[in-house]
């Protein structure tokens, strides 16, 4: 009888403990569910604390070197190449003969034109004398004079053709490519030589619209060349495009004197230095990405008691990805930099970082 009673008491205790444990677990689960529910109602955001800083307004832009001058020297007449007087890599001066075209047929034509001119001179002289004595009319004399002029023009035209059989360099530079050999038949406009002048080079870069007002023609610009890290270069701004491209970047050209180690096509970085005046010191700034609907809106979300508060600020100048704040913030505020698209004024937030 006693054993039965003991079993009953033990069973009751075990049942009680089990019931207590179940109730306790249920309470913990309810607490966790409530906490998760709270988090679900919050929107994840990133923040940055507003502070004063000194802005570095130096700006870099990448680009490639282009020859100051380059041209494709082409033929102005048709014919067969007789001589090619240069090779790839040859240095040439403007006006130097690069190749010659066969001129036998042209020399025959010029001999004929000279004979025609001689006859026209004799005929004209006869008409001039006859007109003085009334032997010919004024119209006949005028026709004689016109034939003389035409004969003179024909001789000059043949002289131009003879001159064109010598292909001359249009600029001073280096033969970068030779497209003809002796025996090649060319027509008018056939490209024969590619000439480049790299005594000085142009570094072509694109400058963002926010920086274009900080540079000027004639400004000296330090340049770093990727494949020549030990050498230092500088150039002078010679061109600033009056119009931007579709990406709101402005083409800028910097002329660099070549000391012999620069080549067209090399990749380089230009460093545009600007004056670091008082305006860029101890400045209150926020990231440009923090603004709602772009910097021009002047609207930001700040953190206030676990919620997002939409405020309006007065902006100053834009320095790259930093925007100057003139009023509306004093420093120390937590500004939301991501997640704004999901926020409304008063939205609950969860700060991720």
From TrEMBL:
<dbReference type="InterPro" id="IPR058625">
    <property type="entry name" value="MdtA-like_BSH"/>
</dbReference>
<dbReference type="InterPro" id="IPR058792">
    <property type="entry name" value="Beta-barrel_RND_2"/>
</dbReference>
<dbReference type="GO" id="GO:0015562">
    <property type="term" value="F:efflux transmembrane transporter activity"/>
</dbReference>
<feature type="domain" description="YknX-like C-terminal permuted SH3-like">
    <location>
        <begin position="284"/>
        <end position="350"/>
    </location>
</feature>
<dbReference type="Pfam" id="PF25989">
    <property type="entry name" value="YknX_C"/>
</dbReference>
<dbReference type="Pfam" id="PF25954">
    <property type="entry name" value="Beta-barrel_RND_2"/>
</dbReference>
<protein>
    <submittedName>
        <fullName>Efflux transporter periplasmic adaptor subunit</fullName>
    </submittedName>
</protein>
<feature type="coiled-coil region">
    <location>
        <begin position="103"/>
        <end position="130"/>
    </location>
</feature>
<feature type="domain" description="Multidrug resistance protein MdtA-like barrel-sandwich hybrid">
    <location>
        <begin position="75"/>
        <end position="196"/>
    </location>
</feature>
<comment type="similarity">
    <text>Belongs to the membrane fusion protein (MFP) (TC 8.A.1) family.</text>
</comment>
<dbReference type="InterPro" id="IPR006143">
    <property type="entry name" value="RND_pump_MFP"/>
</dbReference>
<feature type="domain" description="CusB-like beta-barrel">
    <location>
        <begin position="204"/>
        <end position="274"/>
    </location>
</feature>
<keyword id="KW-0175">Coiled coil</keyword>
<dbReference type="GO" id="GO:1990281">
    <property type="term" value="C:efflux pump complex"/>
</dbReference>
<dbReference type="InterPro" id="IPR058637">
    <property type="entry name" value="YknX-like_C"/>
</dbReference>
<dbReference type="Pfam" id="PF25917">
    <property type="entry name" value="BSH_RND"/>
</dbReference>
């Amino acid at each position: 009888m006693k054993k039965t009673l003991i079993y009953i008491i033990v069973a009751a205790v075990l049942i009680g403990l089990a019931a207590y444990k179940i109730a306790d677990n249920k309470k913990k689960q309810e607490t966790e569910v409530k906490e998760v529910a709270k988090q679900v109602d919050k929107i994840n955001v990133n923040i940055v604390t507003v502070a004063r800083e000194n802005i570095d307004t130096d700006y870099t832009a990448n680009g490639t070197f282009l020859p100051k001058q380059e041209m494709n020297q082409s033929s102005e007449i048709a014919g067969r190449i007789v001589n090619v007087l240069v090779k790839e890599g040859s240095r040439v001066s403007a006006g130097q003969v690069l190749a010659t075209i066969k001129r036998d047929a042209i020399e025959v034509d010029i001999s004929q034109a000279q004979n025609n001119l001689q006859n026209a001179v004799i005929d004209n002289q006869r008409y001039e004398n006859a007109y003085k004595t009334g032997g010919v009319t004024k119209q006949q004399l005028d026709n004689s004079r016109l034939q003389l002029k035409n004969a003179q023009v024909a001789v000059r035209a043949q002289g131009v053709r003879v001159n064109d059989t010598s292909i001359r360099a249009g600029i001073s530079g280096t033969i970068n490519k030779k497209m003809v050999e002796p025996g090649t038949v060319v027509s008018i406009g056939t490209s024969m030589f590619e000439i480049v002048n790299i005594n000085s080079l142009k570094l072509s870069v694109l400058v963002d619209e926010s920086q274009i007002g900080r540079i000027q023609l004639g400004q000296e610009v330090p340049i770093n060349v990727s494949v020549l890290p030990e050498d230092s270069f500088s150039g002078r701004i010679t061109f600033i495009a009056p119009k931007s491209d579709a990406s709101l970047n402005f083409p800028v050209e910097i002329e660099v004197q070549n000391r012999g180690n620069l080549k067209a096509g090399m990749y380089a970085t230009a460093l545009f230095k600007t004056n670091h005046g008082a305006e860029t010191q101890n400045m209150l700034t926020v990231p440009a990405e923090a603004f709602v609907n772009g910097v021009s809106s002047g609207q930001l979300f700040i953190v206030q008691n676990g919620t997002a508060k939409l405020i309006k600020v007065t902006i100053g100048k834009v320095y790259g990805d930093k925007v100057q704040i003139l009023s509306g913030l004093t420093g120390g505020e937590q500004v939301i930099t991501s997640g704004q698209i999901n926020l409304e004024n008063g939205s609950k937030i969860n700060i991720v970082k």
